[in-house]
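Objective 1b: paired records.
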Amino acid sequence: MAGPGERPEACLEERAVVVDELALLRLGVMSLLHAQGVDVVAETHSGREAVSVTTLERPDLVVVGRPADLPVADTVLRLSRLRPAPNVVALVAPGSEQDVAYLVALGTRGVALRVGSAEDLADVIGSARKGAQHVVGALQSSLAGSLRPRTGAPDDLLSAREREVLACLAQGRSNREIAATLSVTLATVKSHLVRIYAKLEAGNRNEALGRAVALGLLT
């Protein structure tokens, strides 16, 4: 008999979880997965629920569209922290191309457009199942120059306080929440963020987090 979180020996097919706020989109993704012989063990509109189900079911793959309760990047970050972490395919909406570099830095196996073609998504899912990383062609320009390696990133690139702010940022906290957590003023948090963005050569939160992951400042 399988223990908690373990699969029965008779259940050897690949398993997946699908999350998106729209039931129709979830249905379409599930159809593609079924066509590839993947068993969908759960589908949900909630990013938080997807993380909980993944913790319990330990699927091979999680397809993250647009959850109703969390940003795509935040959901993927939470999934990346699970052990073992599943392969993740993320679907980004038009206008969210700035998230692609961050998603790739987190180890997302595939990134496709949420409104893209079924063929593109099938290719991305197929690559993810093989453990390869695949970003659809329409989004590859978003990666150009976005994760330039910084040779020998020094341990003191960020101050101790800046690292604390960065950690809060990775947890999805707002500026006010960071200020309350660290017992500093909102103005102080904003000053730290300005310096963090400058040091990481980032223009926004997602870029900062993506480069921090790439540099090993966040795990």
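Objective 1b, second protein:
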Amino acid sequence: MQPFFVIIVLIVIAGIAICSYLSSQRRKKELAALAAAWGFSWDDGDPFGIEHRYEAFHAIGRGHSRRAYHVFHGNRKGRAMVCFDYRYTTGSGKSQSTHHLSGTFIRHGYPFPYLTARPEGFFDKVAEFVGFDDIDFESAEFSKAFYVKSDNRKFAFDLFHARAMEYMLAQPQRFAMEFRGDTMLITDDSTWSPKEFETAIAQVEGLLDLMPEYLRRSLQEGTL
């Protein structure tokens, strides 16, 4: 019975490997088609060195053995974008785990102060309970739904004004956003379908389009 059991195990392992490979090829084909539809350039690997170039961003700087792949980039509505899949590893030995996510870097062209905004989770609520508060807004619903931190509280209030908060609350899917200078990262720690890439980017485009003109001028003039 033992040789038969070994053969069955090998067949199962081979089947899993084949299914994984076919799924990977299907995903690559779908993302390459999305890149072509948008007129973006496609690369199976990472021509930008994302794991080093953008490691200051929280989602990129975590763990070790970091690597971006399935990278496609171009311009959309006047903004330069880099879309990608990403993986990193935490722990070692038997406690080692590999994590996968998708994301998009967007060059919005404004010198933003540092700001991070994400759907509020359990650990954010715990941190708030022990005194590590995020920024509270006039909208209690928005403050409850989103965790927002910034080096410049005025900027946070100007960016998330009443209409912007209503817009964010109306989104059926919410993502994490991190702004550093003229570049931002949007992600949600999961691997996106082509439709989710479109949803995430459109959500940010809508938020940026709602920026008040006085905020644009203040950022450009450095008077914020």
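The mean pLDDT is 88. The radius of gyration is 20 Å.
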